[in-house]
Amino acid sequence: MCVWDYTSLYSQNHLRFYAAAPPLPSQRPGPPPASRSTLSRERSSSAGTPSAGTSGVLGFRAPPDVLEGRLRSQDRPLAVLLEQALRIKEEVTAGLQSSHGSVQIEALSRKLLENHILTITRIVKQLSMGIQELEKEMAQRDSVTSGVAHAVQNMDQKNTAGVGDLRGRVARCDSSIAKLSADVSFREQQVIRLQREVRELSEAVNGQLKELEDKVGKKRMHADKGLAEKELREQLSKTLQGHKDFKLKGITDCPFTFTS
């Protein structure tokens, strides 16, 4: 395989991993100018829109409910990177074996392989850091989840106790209401009975008052009749007494005296 064909294949298939990884300070000069321009174009195009596979590593913080999915999804790029590195190593080895006559091509292939290995190492380190960050976030999420679960459990216990207390109060209120209803019913019956007794007593008193009025009327009539008779007798007695006095006076004033 020609080195330039290998460089083109390498640029087309693996430059997205170069875009995800920042350049190393001690990194040696990269591929030939053609590959360098292609790499710069790929980096400029990928700078505005980072890929979905590396967004978690480059600082994008996913919500807690997808951390486990991200942790599992980052294992696949790592395996793909290792597989591609082994395949590229085999291709470069085959290219080196087929190009023993050219020292420049061999040096260029070695530099390309070294750059690729350094880039893969950098990406693996970044993936490891991303995985550690995800593990920390998962631990924090588990801690928060356990705290929330504990708080929910305490709240549930308090709510259960409050509901039990309220049920007890409701039961006591129902008992008091039933007792008051029974008392009210008993008092209503007593009031009805007292009203009936008062009505009967009122009728009896009215009857007795009527009888007394009749008796008083009769007594009054008898008294009036007795008073009238008494006055009549007194007048008769006065009249008789006047006649007697008149007769006695006439006898006393008479000039004739009777002698025996």
TrEMBL record:
<feature type="coiled-coil region">
    <location>
        <begin position="184"/>
        <end position="215"/>
    </location>
</feature>
<feature type="compositionally biased region" description="Low complexity">
    <location>
        <begin position="45"/>
        <end position="55"/>
    </location>
</feature>
<protein>
    <submittedName>
        <fullName>Family with sequence similarity 81 member B</fullName>
    </submittedName>
</protein>
<keyword id="KW-0175">Coiled coil</keyword>
<feature type="region of interest" description="Disordered">
    <location>
        <begin position="21"/>
        <end position="59"/>
    </location>
</feature>
<comment type="similarity">
    <text>Belongs to the FAM81 family.</text>
</comment>
<dbReference type="InterPro" id="IPR029619">
    <property type="entry name" value="FAM81"/>
</dbReference>
<feature type="compositionally biased region" description="Pro residues">
    <location>
        <begin position="22"/>
        <end position="34"/>
    </location>
</feature>
